[in-house]
Amino acid sequence: MTNKNHFADLKNKVVVITGGNGFMGIQYSKAFKQIGSIVISLDVKKKKNELFYFCDITNENEVKNTLDQIVKKYKKIDILINNASIDYIPSKINKTDYSLENFSQELWLRDLSVGLTGAFICTKIFGKYMSKQKKGGNIINVSSDLGLIAPDNRVYENNFVKPVSYSVIKHGIIGLTKYTSTYWSKKNIRCNCFAPGGMFNNQDQQFVNNIKKLIPLNRMAKKNEYNSIILFLASEASSYLNGSTLVADGGRSIW
């Protein structure tokens, strides 16, 4: 449970989360709601969420229209969290197609479109709006420990590999963060990056056993364990943090 007193300044803040109806997005949404924020999820898949906007973030016109709808209703946007990306569940894909040798340009462009171009479009459009607000705004980009290190494909079974696009996108998100953090700094817009490690979500036990060996804390993250980090980056508790990448991966990337 999140301690409401720690992040009291986030009450009534309008928080836009891309990929808000995904596994991690739902957790972040609940954390903000617990402390009284107004949470708006952008996604192309609908789940039970009272503040949900269907929005293809790879489509600039859709993002602009969504911005207009949000501003018309809430009069402001305080925080943007670029969380959307395509990740692959090993049991649900044709493993051969996702090897580097066979990874198609179509898949490459699709993944980059959502994970990197989508973040760029949302940063461009929502950031421009926030730059005109007197109080500025806050942008948080979600990368990964695989934005810092290469995937260790030995942890996967049955010849599955982490697609090349995933790591490239997550590295790119860190670059986007650095650029954005300096571009609008005079407009009182901070931009930081969060790089989480893997979270346990009923993965294959052999995979869990394999990946634990790469993590000094000897475990994957627990559900909701990242919520306080996102709230910290969004709140005034991190008011002098700008252009940083906050890593929470149990120590995996220090090797």
Account of the 3D structure:
35% of the residues lie in helices and 14% in strands. The protein is α/β, with parallel strands linked by helices and 255 residues long. The chain is built from six helices and seven strands, in the order E-H-E-E-H-E-H-E-H-E-H-H-E. Strands 3-2-1-4-5-6-7 form a seven-stranded parallel sheet, sandwiched between helices. It starts with 13 loop residues before the first strand and ends in a 7-residue tail after the last strand.
Give the strand content.
5-15%
Q: Please tally the helical runs, counting DSSP H or I stretches of 4 or more residues.
A: 6
What percent of residues adopt helix (DSSP H or I)? 25-40%
The profile of the biggest β sheet is:
7 strands, parallel
Order of helices and strands: EHEEHEHEHEHHE
Question: How many whole angstroms does the radius of gyration measure?
Answer: 18 Å
Number of strands: 7
Low-confidence stretches: none
| Main β-sheet, spatial strand arrangement | 3-2-1-4-5-6-7
How far do the termini sit from each other? 32 Å
Mean pLDDT across every amino acid position:
93
Large-scale geometry? globular
Structural class: alpha/beta
Summary keywords:
7 strands; globular; 35% helix; 255 residues; alpha/beta; 7-stranded parallel β-sheet
Summarize the structure.
This protein is of the alpha/beta class and 255 residues long. Helices cover 35% and strands 14% of the residues.
